[in-house]
Amino acid sequence: MAVHLDELSVKDEKNLRKFPISSGPEIFDNSLQAWFAQIINYDLALIKWLYKTAAELADKLGQKNEAEKWRNRLAEWPDFAIDQQEGFLFAPGIPYHESHRHFSQLMAFHPLGLVDWSNGERDQDIIKRTLFCLPHSFHVNGDPSGTGKSKFTYRPFTLEGNFAFASGVREMLLQSHTGVIHVFPAIPASWKNVSFDKLRAQGAFLVSAPRREGEVKEVKILSEKGGRLRIKMRQKIIELDTRPGQAIVLK
Asked: What is this structure's pTM?
C-alpha cells in the first residue's frame, strides 16, 4: 500500500506530497464541495500511519534502507491542518462549521494515536480544543448548550461512538498503544475502588490490578509470549525482559 500511495501522490507548489483530489466521509453531504485539491486530515492521518508502520515493519525485518525510504517519504507530507482556536480542521481553511457524525478529521487522534495525550502538552492542547462532549463523556452531533458550537441544538447521539463505550471504559483501565503499559490511566478521582482482571496489553501481556481507596497496591502480569515488558508505575517506566508464560507481580 505504501508503494501505491508513493505512485499515486503528487507534489504541490511547496514540494509537499498530496493526492490529486482528496475527500472524507459525509463532509458537505458528499457533494462536489466535499472534494478538495488539498489533502484533508482524514486522508493525511491514514497516510502518515501507513508510512510510519511501513518503516517499523522494515526495521523489524532488518531492511534498514527500506525503513529509511519510508521515513523520508513520510517527511514529504504536510502537517495536519490545525487551528489555534478550534483544533483539528476538516481540511486546510475548512473549520468544523456544522455537525459531522463521523468525526473523520480526528483519525490522527483516535484510533491511530499519531496525536496522543501521552505525547505532552502540545497534543493535549490540540485534543482539548477539538473535542466536544456531554458531561457523561458521550459525544453528540449537535450542541444542546445553545452556545453556537453547532447549528443543531438537540441531542443526537452518534451510535457508532456510543456503542464503543465498552472500549472507552477499557481504555480508562488500561492502555498500551504507545508501547508502555499504563494502569488506570484515566480513572476519575472519585472512583476509589475499581479493578480489572486479565485485560490484554500489546505484546501479549495479560494484566490484572485492583485499586482500593484510590491506591494501587499491586499489578499482576502474565507474559504469554515473552519479550520486553515496559510498564509505568508511580511516574517511572519499569522495563523487564520476560519469558513465555512468566508471571510477574509488581508491588
From this structure: 0.70
In tens, the pLDDT along 173-230 reads: 999 998 999 999 999 989 999 999 999 999 999 999 999 999 998 999 999 999 999 9
Whether a cis peptide bond, with omega within 30° of 0, leads into 111 is yes
Amino acid sitting at position 249: V
Annotate the chain with DSSP letters as a single string. Answer: -HHHHHHH-EE-TTS-EE-SSB--TTGGGGSGGG-BSSPPHHHHHHHHHHHHHHHHHHHHTT-HHHHHHHHHHHTTSPPP-EETTTEE-SBTTB---S--TT-GGGTTTTTS-SS-GGG-HHHHHHHHHH--B-TTS-BBSS-TT-SSS-S--S--B-HHHHTTHHHHHHHHHEE-TTSSEEESTT--TT--SEEEEEEEETTTEEEEEEEETTEE--EEEEESS-EEEEEEETTEEEEEEE-TTEEEEE-
For the domain 173-250, what is the CATH superfamily, name and number?
Golgi alpha-mannosidase II (2.60.40.1180)
pLDDT tens profile 104-152: 888 898 889 899 988 889 999 998 888 766 666 565 666 666 776 666 6
Q: What percent of the chain has pLDDT over 90?
A: 51
* Domains in the chain: boundaries: 2-113, 173-250
